[in-house]
C-alpha cells in the first residue's frame, strides 16, 4: 500500500500539534496548525514495528520532529498483545485456594446457547499462578500473616524461571493491603529489580475475579507498554522532538510513557476512545450537546453516546469476554459492520451481513486482490455511491468484479436482480448498526430523536443519512476529515488518572468529615501521580465521584459530587433520577448506600481548536463529474453530480441527490437532503423522516 497524504496546505512548523492513531491497517496522522487552526492529515500503512509507521506517518504529514510542540498517540498495541498473548512471562502470586479464580471467571459465556464454543484462555496459565498461605477477612483483620518460608520458596521458583514480572493478588487485600505489601517486600529482598504489581494498588475494590484479572492484565502489559513508550520517545527525541510522548488511555485521557508503564492495562481500549472524544468535539462545535458517534471503518463500527456534553464511562469492559479490566473506560459498543463486512446466506436461508470481514487481505472483491465474497464496499461501488477511484486515484476499484460477486452470492440464490441484492446488503448492514445504536441509547433511557449523529471513519458518511432515517435522528454531522477523525481525538485530551477506593456505608450513616478526608487521600495520590509526570499544580484539576446503589443490590451508578461535601441530598436525588432513566425504575423511599469513591485527577493540556471560517453566499463550485447512482429513496438510478469537498466553502449548500468526494471518505447526500457546510467546515444534513 502507498502512503496517502491529505490536504495540501502548508503547515506553520513552528506551532504544530501532532496526533497519531495506529490501526490494524492504516496509521492516521493529524497535524494541527496551532496558529491558524487548520488541519493537515496523512495516512500510511501500519508497519510490523508500529513505531516505524508512526514516524513515516509524521514524515508523510510534512512535519519535522523538531517542530512538534505536542505529540499524542492512540494505539492498539495493548489490545493486540492481550488477544495474541504476546507479552513477557509473568507470575501471579495469590492466596492458597484461589489459584483458579481467573480461570473459573464468573461462570458465564459469551454465547449462552453454544456450549461447544471455546472460551479464551486466561492471560496466565495455571503453572504460572502460584500460591502462598495468608488470609485477611472481610473486615480487614489479619487471620494469617504471609508464611515467609513459603514466600521465599516462591521467590526461588520465580528466580529459577527467570521471570521479572509478578502480580500479587490476595483475597480481601482491597480492605487491608498489609499481606500484599509484606509479600512484595519479601520478593524484592530475594529478587532485586523484579517488577511487582499489587492488586491493592492497581484496583483496591471488592470482587476478586475483576481485581485479580485487572492486575494480571496490567502486569503482563507493563513491559510491553513501557518498552514501546520508551523506544518511541527515544527515537522521536533523537529526531529533535523535545516534549513528552502522550498515550491515549481507555478513560479518554492520556498518560506519559512513564505513567503507561505502571497502568498499562488502561491502554487496552486506547484506539476506540479517540473516536468518541473527537465525535463529542465535532458535535459541540456544530452546536449539539447530545450526539451519537458512528465510527465505521473497514472491519467494524464503534458506537458511543454523549449526553449533555458528557461521554458515558463504564467500569465493565473487556478485550475478550470473561476477562474484565476494571479501569474506567469510555463506553463504546463495537460490532462487526464495516466497509469490508461480508454479505452471506445463513443455513436458514436469511441474508446476513458480517461480522465476518474481508479484512485488508484480500479485501473487498472490487479491489481485485483475490476477494470472492461481496462486501458493503462492493455494494456501494455497484450502486454508484462509491466511486471507482479512491485516495486521489491511487486505488482503482473494479465495478464488474463487484457486480459478479453480488450476483453469484446474493442475487441468484435469493431470486433478486443484482441492484436489488446490493440494496438489500446495505439495508441489512444499516439494520445491524441501527440495532447497536438502540443498545447505547434506548436501552439506556435515551431517545435517538434528541441526538445528532456524527458519522465518520472511512465508511460512516456513506451510511449516515440512511441510519438516521431508521432511527428518526434529525441531523447528521460529517467532520472535515472523516477518515482520520479518531486521530483528531488524540489532540483533545488531558492527562488523567482515576483513583478509586472501596467505601461502603448507607448514606444516612456516613460521617461527612470522614468522607471528605477519604477523598483528600485519593486527591493526594492523584497529585503525586501528576507531579511525577511533570504537571505543575496550576494545571491540576480534581473531580470527585461517589458510586451509589440501592441497599442490597450490587450494581451501582457513579454520581459527581462537589469538592467539599456537606451532605449527599443532591447526589441521592440525582442517583434516583439516573437509575430511573437507565433501568426504568427508581425507589425514592428505599435506602441508598455508597459502595465506592473515586477521584479523577486531571493535568490540563491546551486543546486543539479548528479554524473558524466566515460563512459566504458564494456560487457553488462546479461538480467534478457525474455518475448514475441508486438511492434507497428512488426506484431507479439518478444522474448525480459529484463534488470535491475541498472546494466547498463555509456556507455552501449542496442539494441532494449528490455525492461529495474527498480523499479519505465519500458522503452520500440522498434526494431531498441538503448538505450545509458550517463555519468549521463540518457538513450538516437535516433528515426529514419518510412517511
Structural account:
Helices cover 30% and strands 27% of the residues. The strands form ten sheets. Strands 14, 15, 16, 21, 26, 27, 34, 37 and 38 form a nine-stranded mixed beta sheet that branches. It has a seven-stranded mixed beta sheet with strand order 1-4-3-2-5-12-13. The protein has a four-stranded parallel beta sheet with strand order 7-6-10-11, with helices on both faces. The chain is globular and about 80 Å long. The relative contact order is 0.10.
Give a concise summary:
The protein has 691 residues and is an alpha+beta fold. Strand 12 (245-248) and strand 13 form a beta hairpin.
How is this fold's topology laid out?
Elements: E1 4-6, E2 16-22, E3 26-33, E4 39-45, H1 50-60, E5 68-74, H2 77-84, E6 91-95, H3 101-104, E7 129-132, E8 135-136, E9 142-144, H4 148-161, E10 165-169, H5 178-190, E11 195-198, H6 199-202, H7 208-238, E12 245-248, E13 254-256, H8 257-262, H9 270-285, E14 291-296, E15 301-307, E16 310-311, E17 313-314, E18 317-318, E19 324-325, E20 329-330, E21 332-335, E22 341-345, E23 351-357, H10 376-382, E24 389-390, E25 395-396, H11 399-414, H12 418-440, E26 452-456, H13 457-471, E27 475-478, H14 485-489, E28 495-506, H15 512-532, E29 540-550, E30 557-561, H16 569-583, E31 592-603, E32 625-629, E33 638-644, E34 653-655, E35 658-662, E36 665-669, E37 674-677, E38 683-686
Parallel strand pairs: 2-5, 5-12, 6-7, 6-10, 10-11, 14-26, 26-27, 33-35
Antiparallel strand pairs: 1-4, 2-3, 3-4, 8-9, 12-13, 14-15, 15-16, 15-21, 17-20, 18-19, 22-23, 24-25, 27-38, 28-31, 29-30, 29-31, 32-33, 34-37, 35-36, 37-38
Helix pairs in contact: 2-7, 4-5, 10-11, 10-12, 11-12, 12-13
